[in-house]
Structures are given as structure tokens and as C-alpha cells.
Amino acid sequence: MTDKMIKKDQFMGFLHKLKNDYNVFIPAKEDDNFYNFTALGEKETFDFDYKNTRLSPKSFALPQSEKMFEFSLNKSDKDANILREAASDSSNTAIVGIRPCDANAFKVINANFDNPEFRDPWWTKHRDSLTLIGLGCNEPDSTCFCTSAGGGPFDEKGLDILLFDLDEHILIRPITKKGGKLLETADINQEADSSLKQKADEVKAASEKKISSHVATDKLKSKNALELFNASFWDDIAFSCINCGTCTFLCPTCWCFDIQDEVNYDQGDRIRNWDSCMFPLFTLHASGHNPRPEKVQRVRQRFMHKLKYYVDKYDNGIACVGCGRCVKYCPVNIDIREVIRLMNE
Amino acid sequence: MESRESINKDIDLIFKPNLARIERILPQMEGHRLFQLRFVDEDAVNAFAHKPGQFIELTVFGVGEAPISISSPPSRPGIIEICVRKAGSVTGALFELQKGDHVGLRGPFGHGFPLETLKGKDLLLVAGGLGMAPLRSLFQAVLDDRKNYGDIVLMYGARNPDDVLFKYELLGLMNRTDLKYLLSVDVDDEGIWRQYVGVVTGLFKGVQLNSENTFCALCGPPIMYRFVIEELLKRDIPKEQVFVSLERMMKCGVGKCGHCAIGEYYCCTDGPVFRYSDISHIKEAI
């Protein structure tokens, strides 16, 4: 598959054409001035200068709340107490403008949800329906550290298509078969010329240099887990944490969820919701015993999971893509880059 | 870790509970009951095969799901027994149900005690408190196949004489000559206890263990593990020969939801029964 190109003023036409075959989502500024992925309507325009969405796009495959089953408790119903799989939409969806870090996050989570032992039916169904059309980052943010987390501002690993914003033109690089198919459906077939390709390489190289934040992760794998667990820095890291859970909800690689039954009269739903290891209830047993009752234990668990346990278990790098959301939005300024530095020392 | 077979039988069914009927409710000590369950669908009855130490996810309809260990052995199929303490919302609602009512079951899940590894070995089984519920599955399985095992010692520590699970069933074992059954209670205020009074490790006095051939299975509260494991290591029993059953809030049962993470393992899929040598480096495990 070869690089394609279109003029920038044709981009919205391309997106609207896509709507014939895909649900199309683009980043759009909402009333609170934060960007979020929004279904493309008539009014929306694509803002090439956006940095990133506040919420990560993981919710496309792992919704914050998802109905798994429906059931009736009415004993006169023939199927009383039988859990029926709830209808869910898994029609083709294109996420346009996803950042390469967030696309990598799908790969990170996939190791947990789609493995030979058990495939999670909801995750795999949603994930398969997505085509990820990434927008390379010409101007990375000050909190971005993707190049330290196995990625980069134009990293292709998690994407189906990568877009380069090159002034008057967009270079469109198909990466997977899925991406190639999307471009075929939308009749994108003008080959990119060599000068545009060269420009793309230059923009990419320039952007990588703009990432000002670097932290080494090379020693995490060989570190002794027990020594890291016993390290003296956890109290300092956890000291200011208020266990609000913001980091886990904004994190594109945090996947933990809870399962709850909700009942209205005699009809009920079984629902799964995002959960957070920052909350004491997360591990509380009905008996009252709690394996992680202390704040410092929960803070340590989150970082150890992302930066040590995941690394050891999957040999897939760290479970952090360097998007910088937790750095930016943590109300008490806990900085995962500093935690990585301490752990990797 | 033990070798892992793929258990990915039917992806659509791993989250969907199967209907089961409460066949009998046998009261135990206060706040504890033994529920005998049978799948409504006979195909499900025949398809259910578990190992001692595995667990199921129990649905009480309209309330929710909770992980519960299986108390009956695979050698007695048909009825699935679960011994439950009334503790949370799901178990609280379970105690409101009557004989003939329906519950939902998913599973069995996780790794149990590896019977193939234990065959031909001397066994030391140690239970504390409600840890007797899962361990009963193992010792009944072993007793149902007695000739294939060496010496068997069963130790059970309860809080007081009233808090002994499966009391009469277990007292019946006292007369058996093919196993040594030792029972302790922590306190005996009324002075009615004829067996050992004190913590369960006190039962080790006078017990000879062949460290080369003895495999141990432990199930009880974390504090018991610490002291019993110390006792076993003192007697030169290798960590590889000690199996412990751990308890965590296992929500999904299939290694997805993250609640039961212990270091790099999930209690629900890598455990709940672990070889102690596999987890002794994880401080939080016990």
C-alpha cells in the first residue's frame, strides 16, 4: 500500500463520504472548552490544531458503562431469570484524528482482553468494528512523553491509517488492510508525490525533537519486583494522593471494570462500569477483609501494575503510552514520569 | 506456574450464568449454610467438571454476583455444594432463598489443587475457619480415591467449639485409621473441648512429616498462612510442595476486570490455588 494525498480543503468532503459506510467521529471542542470525540454532523469542522481529547478514546471499545445482559424477575415470564445478551452497536466506526499514543493504548489493553485463554466478547466485538485514523502530532504538548513509552508523535503501531498535516495537503498513509479498505471505499487514490513524502519525513523528525520530556524505562524489566515493592519512595509518591481516581478514568490504558445488577421493578440489567484501583472498595471483601486498605498500597499497585507487573507478564513494554493526561489533570500533581524515573533508577 | 490449557470453550458463555436450582439447604453454624445446587439443564449437569479449589460465580437474580468456592468433590458429580457465610449483599440475598428457588452459576473458574501432582504423595491439609469450605472439596476427593495417596494429615483450626464447619461430618473422620485428623479451637471458654485448644500451628507438635514426599494444601485467613508456612519451612518442606488458596474480590472470574490482581497474576485465572514458590516473592499475596 502506498501513501496517498488529498488537498486539505477536500478533507471534510472525504469525512462526509466516509459516513456512507462508517460512523465517523472527530475531535470537537465541547462547551467546557475540552475536546472530545463527537459524531460528525453537518456543522462540525476538523480542527487540525487540537492537542488531544481530555477523555481517552478507550471508551469506544470499553464504554464507561455498558449493558451486558437484560433479565426479567417476573416469575410469570417464560424467561424469568434468564440473562439475555443486551443488543449493542458494533457497526463500522472510524475514529478520525486519534493520536498515535491513544491508538497504542488499544494494543496495551488488548493483551488483557483478547488472549488465548479467554477472549472478552464485548471488547473484541467493539475493537474489531473500529478503524483508527491517526493524526500525527506536529506540535506535541509539554506533558507528552510518548517517545519514552515505546511510541512517538507519528508512531504507526496501533493505527490503521496515519495522517500527516502538511500545510495545504494531507498525506494519508494506509498501515493495515483495514485502513486500505477504508481508503478504497472513500475513493482516496491519488498517490502522494515524492516531495510531499519528504516533507512528511521532515515534519515527523522535527516533531520528535520537540518532545521535551524523556524518561528511561530500560531497567524496569530486569528490576526485582519485590525490591521495587519495598522501595522507600512509595510513601512520598502517595503522600499527596487523594485517591480521586482521575488518573485511572482518564488513562487510555486503565481497563479495570466492575459488574453490577440494576433493577427497576421486576426488570433488570447487568452492567459493567469502569472501576478504579484507587478506591478502597475495589478490593474489599464482603467479610470486611481488604488486601489493599491503605492509600499507599493502592498508589503503589497502580504504578507497579503499569510499569512492572504488565511488563513482566506480557513482554509488551510498559502499560503507559506517554499521553500525559494523568500528569496534566492530577489535582495534586503526581507525575508518572517522576515515578518511572524513581523505579528505573 | 502450572501448565495452562485453553479454557476458551465458548466466548459468548463466559459471562452468562446457567440456571441452577437449590435442592437442599443444610444449616451449619450460625450465619453459615451449605447449599446443594443442581443445574436445571441436564446437559449443563453433565458438562460441569471441576477441580477441588476452583470457584464459581454465583448470581442471586436481581442482586448480583459473588465468587464462591466449591465445597463438593469432583468425585461426587451432579450436585454442586457451596458453603456460604452470610456476609455481603449477594450472600445476604442467597440466605433469603428457599429450596426450589433458582440461582445462576458461571464456572468453574481458576486453577484448583493439582490432583495429578498430589497422587502418590503424603498430604498435609490445613484449614482455618471458613477455609474448610474449599478444602473439603480436596479432602473428600482424596478420600474417595484413598488408595492412590500416601499418609494423610488433616488439620483444622476453628475459633471456638461452636464455629466448627461440617462438625459432625468431620468428627466422623476421627475414627478412621487411614488418616490423622487433628482439630483445634483458639478458645474454649466453657471448657467443653476435648481436642487441642490453641492456634492451629500447635497441632504440628508430635506430627512427623517426610519433607521429601509431603505436599501441603492450605486454606484459611492470611494470618494462618504466615505461621503455618513458617512451620513448614522449618521442617524443610520445599516451597514448591506447598499449595495455598488465596481469596480476592474476583468479579469477572476470567482475568479481565482487574479486581483480583496479585502482582503479575490474577487470582481468578492464575489461582486461586497457587504454588507457594510462585507467589512467595509477592509481598502482598498473603
Give a concise summary.
The complex is a heterodimer of chains A (345) and B (286). Chain A is of the alpha/beta class.
Report the principal-axis shape of chain B: globular
Helix content of chain B: 10-25%
Instruction: Tell me the greatest interface.
Output: A-B, 54 and 48 residues
Low-confidence segments of chain B, given as residue ranges, are 1-9
CATH fold title of the largest domain in chain B: Rossmann fold
Give the strand order of the largest sheet of chain A, numbering strands 1, 2, ... along the chain. 1-9-8-7-6-2-3
Q: How many structural domains are formed by the residues of chain B?
A: 2
Range of strand content of chain A: 15-25%
Helix content of chain A: 25-40%
Instruction: Pick out the low-confidence regions of chain A.
Output: none
Reading off the top of the CATH hierarchy, the class of the largest domain in chain B is best stated as Alpha Beta
Give the class of chain A from helix and strand content and strand pairing.
alpha/beta
Number of domains of chain A: 1
Rg of chain B over CA atoms, rounded to whole Å, is 18 Å
Helix and strand composition category of chain B: alpha/beta
Structure explained in plain terms:
The complex is a heterodimer of chains A (345) and B (286). With 345 residues, chain A is an alpha/beta fold. Chain A has one domain (4-344). Chain A has helices at 11-18, 100-113, 121-129, 177-185, 194-210, 225-229, 234-239, 246-250, 295-314, 325-329, 336-344, and strands spanning 4-7, 23-29, 35-39, 65-72, 84-85, 93-98, 130-135, 161-166, 169-174, 257-264, 267-274. Chain A has a 7-stranded mixed beta sheet, with helices on both faces. A 4-stranded antiparallel beta sheet of chain A has the order 5-4-11-10, with no helix packed on it. In chain A, a hairpin with a 5-residue loop joins strand 2 (23-29) and strand 3 (35-39). Chain A is globular, with a radius of gyration of 22 Å. With 286 residues, chain B is α/β, with parallel strands linked by helices. Chain B has 2 domains: 4-109, Translation factors (Elongation Factor Tu (Ef-tu), domain 3, Beta Barrel); 115-285, 3-Layer(aba) Sandwich (Rossmann fold). Chain B has helices at 42-47, 89-94, 115-118, 132-143, 167-171, 222-234, 267-270, 276-279, and strands at 18-27, 32-39, 55-60, 64-69, 80-85, 102-109, 122-128, 152-158, 180-185, 196-197, 214-219, 242-245, 261-262, 265-266, 273-275. Residues 1-9 of chain B have low confidence and may be disordered. At the A-B interface, strand 4, helix 3, helix 6, strand 10 and helix 9 of A face strand 4, helix 2 and strand 13 of B.
